[in-house]
Amino acid sequence: MTNQDPQELLKRKHEMDEQKRQFTNFSRSVCGHGELEAGQEFSIDRVPDDQNRMKSVENKRD
Fold it and tell me: CA 37: distance to chain centroid?
């Protein structure tokens, strides 16, 4: 196992985060902002699924 300098690892992580940020900004500029953020796929006014609700209740009893 090699010893890695924590400062070097942190520097690499920041560089990778910056690349991800730049790519995200580029992607949004190309595709537009029409895409939903993660977790916003579902409308808040959708009808709840009774089968899933009942399964949740059943799982809580176990």
Answer: 8
**Who's near 35: CB < 8 A, 6+ residues apart?**
28
Of 50, 48, 24, the C-alpha closest to 38 is 24
Q: How many residues does the chain have?
A: 62
Tens digit of each residue's pLDDT (9 = 90 or more) over 3-54 = 789 999 999 999 999 999 999 999 888 887 565 556 555 555 555 667 677 6
Q: How far is CA 32 from CA 10, 18, 21, in A?
A: 32, 20, 16
The answer to whether the pTM exceeds 0.70 is no
Residues in Cβ contact with 28 at an 8 Å cutoff, skipping those fewer than 6 apart = 35
Q: Which two tokens stand for residue 22?
A: 């730049």
